[in-house]
Specification:
The protein is α+β, with helices and mostly antiparallel strands. About 25% of the residues lie in helices and about 30% in strands. The chain contains six helices and eleven strands. The chain has a five-stranded mixed β-sheet with strand order 1-2-5-7-6, covered by helices on one side. Strands 3-4 form a two-stranded antiparallel ribbon. A two-stranded antiparallel ribbon has the order 8-9. A hairpin with a 2-residue loop joins strand 3 (about 70-75) and strand 4. It is globular and about 50 Å long. The two termini are about 30 Å apart.
Length: about 190
């Protein structure tokens, strides 16, 4: 909380704050049970989006929703790269030179007009199953941690995705200890169970 790092609210932060007894998924229920009022107070201060600079806009899902995939689209239960028209619609008029998003945990960079759209991926969960809006899996196919660098150079903005091996087996064991075989499998393989 006092790290000085910019943090955004995503769908899980919102869901944890809105959680009612007996509701929500196991991840939200577990997170909610671990937090004190100090953490809840901090979570309430987080914004859903942030204009980092004139050139960089940050959001969790899309500019209009923390639960909307910006760069991917569901076709039935299969995730695919979104079309330019789908991305444009989800941007809702946002045209920053760099738009960084997350939500799917899938590392990706897309050029859309004059904008570089970047999802850095996930440092700690490379696959998951979701039921919104229909049941589907999101998978990277690797247990490695992912992040990205963006840099302005001559000729425009550039993105470099980084894939780093880490002790994912220890995290998978922790998931197993907490009764989450789905997360254990995802952390070990990068595939949803």
């Amino acid at each position: 909380m006092a790290s000085g790092w910019l943090s955004l609210a995503g769908n899980h932060e919102r869901q944890v704050l809105e959680l009612r007894p007996g509701r929500g998924g196991p991840s939200d229920q577990y997170a909610h049970a671990q937090l004190t009022e100090a953490e809840f107070t901090w979570l309430r201060t987080l914004k859903a989006w942030h204009r980092f600079s004139d050139d960089i806009y940050l959001c969790h899902g899309s500019p209009r929703s923390d639960h909307e995939y910006l760069l991917e689209t569901l076709d039935g239960s299969t995730l695919r790269l979104a079309t330019a028209a789908e991305i444009s619609d989800r941007l809702g008029g946002e045209h920053s030179p760099v738009i960084a998003c997350g939500h799917t945990h899938v590392p990706r960079a897309v050029r859309q007009g004059a904008s570089l759209l970047v999802n850095p991926g996930s440092v700690g969960l490379q696959a998951y199953s979701d039921d919104h809006p229909v049941p589907h899996a999101v998978q990277t196919g690797t247990p490695d941690a992912r992040y990205a660098f963006i840099e302005q150079r001559a000729g425009g903005w550039h993105c470099e995705h980084i894939c780093v091996p880490y002790d994912h087996a220890a995290m998978a064991a922790l998931a197993r200890q907490h009764g989450r075989p789905d997360w254990e499998h995802a952390l070990l393989t990068g595939y949803a169970a």
